[in-house]
Amino acid sequence: MKFLIDAQLPVRLSHLLKSMGHDAIHTKELALKNATPDTEINTLSIREQRIIITKDSDFWDSYYVSQEPYKLLLVTTGNISNKELESLFVNNLDQLLYLLEHHSLIEISRDSVIVHQ
After folding, report:
1. Angle at alpha carbon of residue 106, lines to 103 and 107, rounded to 5°
2. pLDDT digits (tens, 9 = 90+) for 83-96
3. d(CA 107, CA 88)
4. Spatial CA neighbour of 1 closest among 27, 26, 22
5. Prior bond to 69 cis, omega within 30?
6. Which helix (H) or strand (E) holds 108?
7. Which residues contact 17 (CB under 8 A, 6 or more apart)?
8. In CA terms, which of 8, 48, 106, 113 is 20 to 30 Å from 78?
9. Where are the alpha helices (H) located in 1-117, listed in sequence order?
C-alpha cells in the first residue's frame, strides 16, 4: 500500500512501513516539508492514491466535508513514545491493511481499531 505520514508522526514510521514492503513517504520528504498545507497533502493523496496517516483531526473534518483525502488512518493514541507507536503498527498492520482495502476511514487508538463510515 501507499502511505503518506503527516508531520505530527515520526519519520521512523515511514521507515518502518518501507521496511515492511510498503511505499511510504513522510511530509518531511515533500518540497515544503512539514509546512506543506493540508490541501496539498490531500491533493497528493488523491493523485497518488496514498493513505494519509495522521493525528490531525482537520483531515477527519476534510474527509467528511469533501471526501478528501483518498483514505485516512487517524491515530488517536495521545502522547505515545515512538517505540510504542511502532509496536502498535507492527501488531495491527495486517488488520489495518485488510480494513484499508475495504474502507476509507479508520481510527487506531492504543487499544482498538475502529472503522468509520
Report:
1. 170
2. 999 999 999 999 99
3. 12
4. 22
5. yes
6. strand 105-108
7. 3, 5, 24, 89
8. 48
9. 11-19, 38-48, 57-66, 82-102
